[in-house]
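User: Need the bound-state model for zinc ion:
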Amino acid sequence: MTISSIDTWSVRVTKDTLVFSAAHFITFNRSICERIHGHNWRVEAEIQGPLDENHYVFDFIALRDGLQLLVQELDHRVLLPARHPMIQLEVSDDEREVTARFEDRRWVFPREDCVILPIENTTAELIAQWIGHALIARLKLNHQHGLTRLRISVEENFGQWADCWLHLSAIDNVSGEPCNSGTAGAI
Ligand SMILES: [Zn+2]
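Assistant: Bound-state model below.
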């Protein structure tokens, strides 16, 4: 079969296991901070690009497993934003606790129960973006055969999805790690 230059492809993974249960709280409209609460977040990934020598865009299994590992890292954790302008995080000297502060409110968590993400707010949109950058780094998606775009979608509640499209040729040198190895003190 002749492959037309105008044909395009994508691969997509969505699985019942690509779900993580995690707590978070976001701020919005500057001064409103939610109560801490949880979701069963569902994650889906799609990669666009040309076919490789195997006549596929990207290995389904590698994509599935890479995403599954990230999902497991977020599962049963409290998600905290390291770059929030109004939520201050502080890890205790012995690295056993994290204290989050917003105005006169304070939350203290076991450090091991938290994932501190390098994002401004733990919205579904920014969680999707972080997962996307992490997946690109770990699967080296920028160094493949001309893959063009990655979509990460995160469902925060039934039927409420946030999609983040990442252009694969335009991003590089982005860490795929959360801030879990940070030193004690303010983050
Ligand atoms: Zn929420």
